[in-house]
Amino acid sequence: MALLQLRDLNKHFGGLHVTNSVNLVLEQGEIHCLIGPNGAGKSTLFRLILGEHHPGSGQIWFADEDITALKSFARIRRGLSVKFQVPGVFKGLSVRQNLEIALQSRLHGAALDKEIEGLLAFLNLEAEQAQLAGNLSHGQKQWLEIGMAISLKPRLLLLDEPTAGMSPEETHMTGEMVRRLNAAGMTVLAIEHDMAFVRQVAQRVTVLHLGQVFAQGSIDEIVADERVAAIYLGQAHA
Amino acid sequence: MTGFLGLFRRLEGPQTLGRGPAFWALFALVLAGALAYPLFSDGYTVGNTVYFFVWVFIALSLSLIWGYGGSLSFGQTAFFGIAGYGYGILTINFGASYGFTWIALLLAIGMAALVAALLGYFMFFGRIGGVFLGIVTLAVTLMLERFMAQTAGPEWRIGAARLNGFNGMSAMPPLTIPWFGGPIVLFADVGLYYVVLAMLVLVYLALRILMNSSFGNVIVAIRENPERAEMLGYDIRKYQLITFVIGAALAGLSGVLYTVWGQYITPSSMGMTAASLPLIWVAVGGRSDLTATIIGTLVVLSGFQALTIYGSQYALVFMGVLLVLTVLIAPNGLVLGLITWVTKRVARRKQETA
Question: For the CA atoms of A58, A63, A69, A74, what is the dihedral angle to 10 degrees?
């Protein structure tokens, strides 16, 4: 069953066609990675899905509902959630309070506290719970934000470069987190440059190039595709 | 019952300084001192003390909108003026009998809140934020001042109330409590002192509860990162609007109390200087905490008053210097910085002795 459908989505910034007739279907329960060279329009696509940008034409369907005209917060309430590229934690607040703010619309009192404990353990942030989020390491901030994003119990989790700035160990741990979330039923769409991570988690990969869907398939198919290597992997390893 | 107890638990929390028996004992001590103070002073001095209390509400409103909510507003002074004039117009027309002054107080605050709701709707739902919010609110404040300044002519009247331009509106009745043996009129004296003190304590405690509730959580989240807050499913515009309206009501309360205190209000109470001074008290005190805001406001305001009384024409210049120093030394506020420094030292002492 399709959870998210982008239908002929277009977005112009002046003369720049950043999203060019994108059609993308995300199946319920999959981990789908979005890759592509810088400027391919990956983050713009996320912003369109989240309602931070509005498409010039085309539709966005989520769980059999047209959400193209909905405001961001309304989309979130329908079961979308996101971790931004630059960690968007509440820097001046404690780690614990960050999670509380994410959870409080769903849980209260003792149930809320219990859920926070569980999340802190899942995110390896138990020792840091009283610290200000702004004092965390970059990787920990990423985890905290993932924790906030999954607090909403979303049906679809959007991850914009979840492993940026992480060590290989941290990247691997993040991959395991994502797989555990997916095993629990969460559909994941991730923008990622780190091919090790993509290999670790992706069930399907879409390559975006110049605002268009360039190729789609399993990671092995994508890696084997010489055209993709030419525009993306080729450039990256040149 | 548990809901009621829950409210009490919210008196303490991450958004407000002070917790535990030590803090509340100190609170009770200060309150007892404030209650006993008129016994050791004369009515005139007590009445002047009320003047300082009057301004605390507008300071708290700024703490709420700016310190907690992250939106700098110059509009508090406008709401102050709207409510002040509103009270004057209502009571000059309808008098003070049957406790009407209290209804006028509520109506005047309601007017300020209504204007804030309209203005706030267009600002927040039009996604005006950051420095532009400051510019729009300042423009509204100065526009109101300009408007009121040109109302000196006799044609500017609402019922029996002349607006009077820069001469100011005066002779509105003070707050009056209807009583069996004849109404109790609260002139700027001991009676008004206790009433305003009670309001102050109530507002302070209520704001502590509000800021430590889930509502307060969202407010500080919007200050820290509005995009993230929205992407957690919160309609941030609604939260900003509600905060703005609560703030306007508090500023309005200040305006009404100022008017009843001196039975007088002029357009300059909405001028540039009037709009800037509360910002300085709150910035110097520590805008992101209610307690620091109150202490800062009372200290700076009495210092300012002393400077003015003892003949210094440079009181305003001194305020400017104070603001610059605050920004340089303790950007989060001098009082707040001092409190944090002391608590850290005490905590370290405890650790060392333990």
Answer: -150
